[in-house]
Amino acid sequence: MTEESAHDGGSDLRSDGGNAGDESVVRRDRFSGGPARSFLSSLAADERIFEADLEVDRAHTVMLAEQGIVEDDVAGQILTALDAIEVDGHDSLPDGEDVHEAIETAVIERIGAEGGKMHTARSRNDEVAACIRYRLREDVLEAVETTLALRESLVAVAEAHAETIMPGYTHLQPAQPTTVAHWALAYEGAVGRDTARLLEAYDRINESPLGGAAFAGTTFDIDRERVAELLGFEGVVENSMDASSSRDFLLEATQALSTHATTLSGLAEDVVIFANRGFVDLSDDYSSTSSIMPQKKNPDTLELVRAVAGDAAGGVQGLTTTLKGLPRAYNRDLQRATTHAWETVDAVTEASEVAAGAVATADWNEETLAAEAGEGFSTATGVADLLAANGLPFRTAHEMVAHAAENGADYDALEAAAREVLGDPLESLVDPDAVEEALDPAASVASRDSQGGPAPEAVADQLELARESQSDDRATLEELDAALEAAHESLREEVNGYV
Question: Which parts of the sequence belong to the Argininosuccinate lyase C-terminal domain (predicted)?
Answer without folding.
Answer: 377-446
